[in-house]
Amino acid sequence: MAEAKTQVETIRKWVVDHKLRTVGCLWLSGITGSIAYNWSRPNMKTSVKIIHARLHAQALTLAALAGAAVVEYYDHRAEAKRAKNSEQ
């Protein structure tokens, strides 16, 4: 179980260090997946497919930004807790 925690901590640290890259990668994968999904639906016009892909990617970007904010909040709380414990 300790190995899983270190892997989660490693991922969390990478996300904290590369917030914009993480959001950008999520956006790119979201729009790619959405375009692939919409292209498999032949009864839609191309413009509608592109609009749907953009909307899906935009929603995923907002979720990624909210997730980055949560990670940042958690990181600041953990840092403050460490500083408080080191003072005692």
From TrEMBL:
The chain crosses the membrane at residues 20-39, 51-74. InterPro entries: Hypoxia_induced_domain (IPR007667), Rcf2 (IPR040153). Keywords: Membrane, Transmembrane, Transmembrane helix. One of its GO terms (cellular component) is mitochondrion. GO terms for biological process: mitochondrial respiratory chain complex IV assembly. It holds the Pfam family HIG_1_N. Residues 1-83 form the HIG1 domain. It comes from the Eukaryota. It is found in: Mitochondrion. This is HIG1 domain-containing protein. It comes from Lotus japonicus (Lotus corniculatus var. japonicus).
